Amino acid sequence: MVFGNAPRALRPYICSSCAKSLKLRSRKFATAASPDIYDVACVGGGPAGLSLLTALRSSKATSHLRLALIESQDLDRVRKWNLPPDQYSNRASSLTPSSQAFLSQIGAWPHIDTSRVQPYHHMRVWDGLSSTARITFDSPTPEPAIAHMIENQNLTRALLARLDSLEPISLLDKTSVREIHLGPPPSPLTPEPTYLNLSSYPHVTLSSNQTIAARLLIGADGPNSAVRTFAGIETRGYDYNRDGVVATLKLPSSFAHHPSSPRGVTAYQRFLPSGPIALLALPGPYASLVWTTTPSQSALLKTLSPEDFTAMVNAAFRLSAVDLNYMFTLPSNQLSEFQWRDSVHPSTASEAKGEIPHLISSVQQGSIASFPLRLRHASSYTTSRIALIGDAAHTIHPLAGQGLNMGLSDSKALAEAIEYAVCHGADIGDEMGCLDRYKGEVWWGNQRLLGAVDKLHWLYSVGSGPVVGVRKWGLRAVDVMGDLGVKGWLMRQAGGL
Amino acid sequence: MAHTLASTRLFNLPASFRFTCVNLARTFSVLNRPPPHYAGHVPLNVFERGAVAAGSAIMSLLNPRRGDLIAALGETTATPYFIYRLRDVMLSSPTGRRILRDRPRITSQTMSVTKLRAMAENTVGRAYVDWLDREGVSPDTRDSVKYIDDEECAYVMQRYRESHDFYHALTGLPVFVEGEVALKAFEFANTLLPMTGLSIFAVTRMKPAERSRFWRTYLPWALSNGLKSKEVINVYWEEQLERDIDDLRAELGLERPPDLRERRKAMKEQRKAAKEKREKMGGLMAD
């Protein structure tokens, strides 16, 4: 500004052409000092962030927006992700039909390697304390499936491939957020009409020392969101004191989820007192494990030999809670315990009926991992020029497999709200003009889902007493009422159709 | 065998009649019994089980020496829940699991009485054989379990039954009604098997002096020891024979009750002395 004003004071002493060139230079300087301004800057390149940017780019109304993605990981690693067909990532998710429809709508589905995606049509859910209490879900027709199992990396790679195929956006990868602050307050000493008042714009200073400003800053940066902290949005919830143990499992090679008849593919979940264990089919003789259990049990599982770990997984779907608790007290040799117990109470009959999964034969080396489970819900998803999506807004217990789907549904709703605002000439960073629409669309639905899943967790963590009896009758009642449309309703709720 | 005969007879009936019975024949009935789950198993339906339980309860109360009826009562009242609970108790303990894995049986073959007699004084084996000799019973006096449907639970019942004499040896309680009822009360608190609890009704058969001794001394002992001591079903008796019995009692957290035979003897002598005194004094002047 000093340089900008100086020529004016000196004008009588400088010729007009020189004054012009000086002015021009000073203008240039002013532009360089102000930050790079984007319409939408998204922090976090996970499925939620990538799908939002892809949705914005692929929609006619929003394709002209200036977009930036800030991601601390190297995106080339995402692009180059490639596993041989006999290996699967341990992070796999169940994609509901509505999520799948969204991915098709934004053009990402064709980029997915479908040879690594497994649809399933049946679900068997039962109570670990009363084996007669079980519920079966069967999709009435082969299409659509109840859901598709997909590796998270397969999904992010496809989203990135789709994004790369569109008009380029600023991909600031290998870059982390150093600081977020608001722009400087407007100064009364700036008479220039072109001066931009950026005082309400969030400015993100990056690890590369670059600063960008955004009309709308998206927090898609996970449970410990820096954007959420900057926005001062509170989260409610607590830690479950449970770990989610994940692994990639292999079934006998002869058995491959009946590849000839995809109708035979079933997802299994058993509710044990420590938490549910789920086996979800991947293509071929592979399956993905999600086992919710106490931190001490999860620590033990990670120390076991592959044979004993395999035995524990087989035991968790077959043996009583008493046997399992005992096997968790042993430092090793779970295999022999399992073999003995399975010989006393053979599970072959219920296996033949498809009530329980096939015996798994091994676990993929290095695929056993665990993460702590939390319930968190942001009290709001938006403030002025800020919106939260995905895990930054909510973290959920994995028992219903809804975490990823909630993130995608956030992206869809936010992209629609932005599109609406653009079409109607509103400011996309304005709460009333745009963001309230997004929040109103998804917050209550997510709150309901988080609450329902949380209650299921507590209902099934009760180990004895009248609650066990009541829930047994409750589950049976729901199963019997299947013909009255109750199950169809539940499936529609879970599938988001 | 009666049921096979009955079902053969059913299939000899004219077809038209047979088809009307299809529903009946499909379900569990006297005419259509499922195959046994293990050798000697007699599958019963709910009504039959109830009838056997009620009948054996009444008859064994009238004649407490009928061990077979007490056994039938034990088996028919153990399901649902109780025998499974006891099995789970065993499955939660390393020793209990070993017992269920090995399934040892206590018979005169596996428990050689002569070998036990040669053991040192105050060992578990010696106490057991001394108790057998004192009470004049043998390890072979136990029936096989037949009314419990689950094969493993049937073994648990069998094991309880065969260990019963070891519980006698451990507590020193004798076999006549008074000692038996005290031990059953202890077992009820310890194993929760309903038959052991129902057996306490046998107090109605006791003499007033015995009854008051039971209420005052033996029932409180049985309940407190049964609850506070470890589960006796999880003792691998075959491995404990050489062990000092007081050591084992201490490990289980069990106190020995007052010796019932001694007490009865003392009471009897007291009564006898009083009677002699009365006679000597000439009737009315007794006290």
From TrEMBL, chain A:
Keywords, in A-Z order: FAD, Flavoprotein, Membrane, Mitochondrion, Mitochondrion inner membrane, Monooxygenase, Oxidoreductase, Ubiquinone biosynthesis
InterPro entries cross-referenced by the UniProt entry: FAD-bd, FAD/NAD-bd_sf, Ubi_Hdrlase_CS, UbiH/COQ6, UbiH/COQ6_monooxygenase, UbQ_mOase_COQ6
GO molecular function: 2-methoxy-6-polyprenolphenol 4-hydroxylase activity; 4-hydroxy-3-all-trans-polyprenylbenzoate oxygenase activity; FAD binding; oxidoreductase activity, acting on paired donors, with incorporation or reduction of molecular oxygen, reduced flavin or flavoprotein as one donor, and incorporation of one atom of oxygen
Reaction catalysed by this enzyme: a 4-hydroxy-3-(all-trans-polyprenyl)benzoate + 2 reduced [2Fe-2S]-[ferredoxin] + O2 + 2 H(+) = a 3,4-dihydroxy-5-(all-trans-polyprenyl)benzoate + 2 oxidized [2Fe-2S]-[ferredoxin] + H2O; a 2-methoxy-6-(all-trans-polyprenyl)phenol + 2 reduced [2Fe-2S]-[ferredoxin] + O2 + 2 H(+) = a 2-methoxy-6-(all-trans-polyprenyl)benzene-1,4-diol + 2 oxidized [2Fe-2S]-[ferredoxin] + H2O
GO CC term, one of those recorded: extrinsic component of mitochondrial inner membrane
Pathway this chain belongs to: Cofactor biosynthesis; ubiquinone biosynthesis
Pfam family, one: FAD_binding_3
Membrane association type: Peripheral membrane protein
SUPFAM superfamilies reported in the protein's UniProt record: FAD/NAD(P)-binding domain
Subcellular localization, as worded in the UniProt entry: Mitochondrion inner membrane
Cofactor section: FAD
EC number: 1.14.15.45, 1.14.15.46
Domain FAD-binding, chain residue ranges per copy: 38-241, 363-418
Superkingdom field: Eukaryota
UniProt keyword annotation of Oxidoreductase present: yes
Subunit structure and binding partners: Component of a multi-subunit COQ enzyme complex, composed of at least COQ3, COQ4, COQ5, COQ6, COQ7 and COQ9.
UniProt xrefs under HAMAP family: COQ6_monooxygenase
Function: FAD-dependent monooxygenase required for two non-consecutive steps during ubiquinone biosynthesis. Required for the C5-ring hydroxylation during ubiquinone biosynthesis by catalyzing the hydroxylation of 4-hydroxy-3-(all-trans-polyprenyl)benzoic acid to 3,4-dihydroxy-5-(all-trans-polyprenyl)benzoic acid. Also acts downstream of coq4, for the C1-hydroxylation during ubiquinone biosynthesis by catalyzing the hydroxylation of 2-methoxy-6-(all-trans-polyprenyl)phenol to 2-methoxy-6-(all-trans-polyprenyl)benzene-1,4-diol.
Family: Belongs to the UbiH/COQ6 family.
Name the UniProt record assigns to this protein: Ubiquinone biosynthesis monooxygenase COQ6, mitochondrial
Organism whose genome encodes this protein: Cladonia borealis
Lineage: Eukaryota, Fungi, Dikarya, Ascomycota, Pezizomycotina
Designated gene of the protein: COQ6
Automatic annotation (TrEMBL), chain B:
Membrane topology: Peripheral membrane protein
Annotated region (Disordered), positions in chain: 259-287
Pathway assigned to this chain's UniProt record: Cofactor biosynthesis; ubiquinone biosynthesis
Reactions listed under catalytic activity: a 4-hydroxy-3-methoxy-5-(all-trans-polyprenyl)benzoate + H(+) = a 2-methoxy-6-(all-trans-polyprenyl)phenol + CO2
Presence of the UniProt keyword Membrane in the record: yes
Subcellular location as annotated: Mitochondrion inner membrane
UniProt: Zn(2+) binding residues: H164, D165, H168, E180
Superkingdom classification of source: Eukaryota
Keywords: Lyase, Membrane, Metal-binding, Mitochondrion, Mitochondrion inner membrane, Ubiquinone biosynthesis, Zinc
Cofactor field: Zn(2+)
Keyword Membrane attributed: yes
GO-annotated molecular function: 4-hydroxy-3-methoxy-5-polyprenylbenzoate decarboxylase activity; zinc ion binding
Basic and acidic residues biased stretches: 259-281
A cellular component term, taken from the record's GO annotations: extrinsic component of mitochondrial inner membrane
Family recorded in the similarity comment: Belongs to the COQ4 family.
Protein purpose: Lyase that catalyzes the C1-decarboxylation of 4-hydroxy-3-methoxy-5-(all-trans-polyprenyl)benzoic acid into 2-methoxy-6-(all-trans-polyprenyl)phenol during ubiquinone biosynthesis.
Assembly notes: Component of a multi-subunit COQ enzyme complex, composed of at least COQ3, COQ4, COQ5, COQ6, COQ7 and COQ9.
Protein name from the UniProt record: 4-hydroxy-3-methoxy-5-polyprenylbenzoate decarboxylase
Species of origin: Cladonia borealis
Gene name per UniProt: COQ4
